[in-house]
Specification:
single chain; Rossmann fold; six-stranded mixed beta sheet; four-stranded antiparallel beta sheet; 8 helices; 10 strands; 25% strand; binds adenosine-5'-triphosphate
Length: 243
């Protein structure tokens, strides 16, 4: 089966001459559909760069990135924009909802941007799935942080994307709410055969994933299946993350 996301020998270089930073250095990995993957590593190891390159938010310096078999390097800017709108969902630490729009309109926004009219029943179904039935007409400011992140997850799912990318999606939430959001992401993956790739600093968050990829100095240095928070924390300590 075609992986949801595949990177082959991906290198990303920032800067030039004396100030060159090799943020990704020959990264190859295949993320199967229907899995939840966490990306961990010390500060500066390349996690955000990995996420941005894998999601088509940033171009790679060399190597290839494929989403569901589409080589992103072969797409022009319009093609890349279309792919990001239709085939990729994003969930950020800061929720990034539009304050003036209702929950229903926030959730339908990716479809509108893609030139489609959001189907009310579909929006209602997604809102129910994320535990927000009855909040369709609320505005973001009327919701708790956890509820706002649920709206962001619903918005990420509305296009039925090949993959949802999360950048510290629980970083702004209290522990209990973070656990609920992680449980929701895990359920989405397992019930809908969705695919989630999440960058996190938190070993407990990573333990909700099926697989953890460990980055150090722009390379994948380890991979852990069925992770436990303790196992992930121990691995991070060996990488010098908390030295
Ligand atoms: N736009 C940029 N210009 C120059 N260097 C950059 C840029 N973005 C990232 N870098 C460098 O690339 C390397 C990897 O950065 P990246 O942000 O991907 O790491 P990270 O693991 O996400 O870090 P953190 O956990 O601190 O967010 C770092 O050395 C960083 O300084």
């Amino acid at each position: 089966m075609t992986p949801a996301v595949r990177l082959d020998s991906v290198t990303k270089i920032y800067g030039r001459s004396a100030n060159v930073v090799r943020a990704l250095d020959g990264v190859s990995t295949a993320i199967p559909s229907g899995t939840f993957t966490a990306v961990m590593g010390p500060s500066g190891s390349g996690k955000s760069t990995f996420l941005h390159c894998a999601a088509g938010l940033d171009r790679v310096s060399s190597g290839t990135v494929r989403i569901g078999g589409t080589d992103l390097g072969e797409l022009n800017e319009n093609g890349l924009t279309r792919l990001r709108r239709r085939r990729v969902g994003f969930v950020f630490q800061a929720f990034n909802l539009v304050p003036s729009l209702t929950v229903r309109h926030n959730v339908g926004l990716p479809l509108r941007l893609a030139g489609q009219r959001p189907n009310r029943a579909r929006v209602a179904e997604i809102l129910e799935r994320v535990g927000l039935a009855g909040k369709a007409e609320a505005r973001p400011a009327e919701l708790s942080g956890g509820q706002q992140q649920r709206v962001a997850i619903a918005r990420a799912l509305i296009t039925d994307p090949d993959v949802v990318f999360g950048d510290e999606p629980t970083g702004a939430l209290d522990t209990v709410t973070a656990r609920e959001i992680l449980g929701l992401l895990r359920d989405v993956v397992h019930e809908r055969q969705g695919t989630v790739v999440m960058v996190t600093h938190d070993p407990v968050a990573a333990s909700y994933a099926d697989t953890v990829l460990f980055l150090a100095d722009g390379r994948i240095v380890d991979e852990m299946s069925a992770p436990t928070a303790e196992g992930v924390a121990e691995r991070m300590t060996h990488l010098g993350a908390w030295a």
